[in-house]
Amino acid sequence: MHSRKVIVIGGGAAGLMAAGQAARAGAETLLLEKMPQPGRKIRITGKGRCNITNTSELPEFIRHFGQSGRFLHQAFARFFNLDLIDFFETLGLDLVTERGGRVFPAGGKAPEVLAVLLEWVRKSGVEIRTAAPVEELLIQEGRVTGVVCGNGKIEAAAVILATGGASYPLTGSTGDGYRLAAAAGHRIVPIRPALVPLITAGKIAERLCDLNLRNVKVRMLVDNKKQQEAFGELVFSDFGLSGPVILTLSGSAVDALQKGRKVTISIDLKPALDENKLEARLLRDFASRGKEEFAVFLRGLLPREMVPVCLEQTGIPAERKVHSVSAKERRSLKVWLKDFRLEVIGYRPLTEAIVTAGGVDTAEVDPRTMESRLTGKLFLAGEVLDIQGDTGGYNLQAAFSTGWLAGRAAAGSVAGIASPDG
After folding, report:
1. Cβ of 133: how many Cβ atoms within 10 Å?
2. In angstroms, rounded to a whole number, what is the distance separating the alpha carbons of residues 360 and 383?
3. How far, in Å, CA of 325 to CA of 317, rounded?
4. How far apart are CA 217 and CA 86, in angstroms?
5. Cβ(31)–Cβ(127) under 8 Å?
6. What is the pLDDT of residues 69-116, one digit of tens each?
7. Residue 238 has what pLDDT?
8. What are phi and psi of 78, to 5 degrees?
9. How many Å apart are CA 180 and CA 178, to the nearest integer?
10. Residue 394: CB partners within 8 Å, gap ≥ 6?
11. What global pTM score does this model have?
């Protein structure tokens, strides 16, 4: 068998960062990628623009990972958003920060991120072998000793598992890492889609298909009790709801639906106005536009596509003159504007999810090194772990940070190589 110091399985964000760091720390490094080219998911992330990170401060950043955020403290303490920004800018990639602290390549093209990352990995001395799926981890006496790849075995002093999740299977993320980790004794938290569009009951969403609502507040109700809320952009589709706010809420929605609970999305179409201010505005508008038909009046309040839906759900006739609308009907309109509801009955498949929830149980991984607590010299990084954050650059930062830490730690675990801090 041909001996290698460190083998990295998977050529996504975490794997590329891990391989480059391991090589720069002095380890002979081989990266094995099952697809014809590495980094396919990077090329399509962020709608093809690659939202590499977010400028949020650490406490806020961690909050966007929910319960899984605690595990990331150590990785973020070693390599965080400003470090990643400096990393790419040093490689010659210009970056811009947009609304919400989201950081993108200035050129707006995800392939630019992949290109500079691959060049850096190769210059670091990493051997990249593509079309090389790993079939098995070799484990002896409680530690990994190599991998089975194709018809051959490759020895290793350490292995980094960075195979990604199970979303976007055409990019190579087909859940292979879960099988390999399970064979090494790890518990796999059941995988499910996260950051995924939601399916709603009835035909309302289909009628509003492609309507984009900006600056709305969205609440998610579980069994009619508020569980979460988000502010931003929402998009209607022929099956239901998508857009950043829906993706942010979707993880909790999926979990609730899988438990058989009732999930409702409530949209506040006028979040800048509380109920009293909205009431005052409606009274003023009713007084100044009293001779208009109600349907015409609504066009000053709502996108054109929403007017028929509002008429149906409030029960106010379209041709009714505004001055003839009763106080009770006006209150019905006010409630509808602040609490437009759609029942959620499902979610799109894992193949359409941006990230995978679930994965290797982080309780079985040392957060200081990303090394398995069960199998020596096995390190894990990126989406194969049970960590998932909101949309906005958080998940890619987690992949880069855990990859950075795993690469450094794996190199440091190889006899004769000290683990550097910088």
Report:
1. 16
2. 9
3. 9
4. 34
5. yes
6. 999 999 999 999 999 999 999 999 999 999 999 999 999 999 999 999
7. 96
8. -90, -35
9. 5
10. 53, 54, 61, 64, 65
11. 0.86
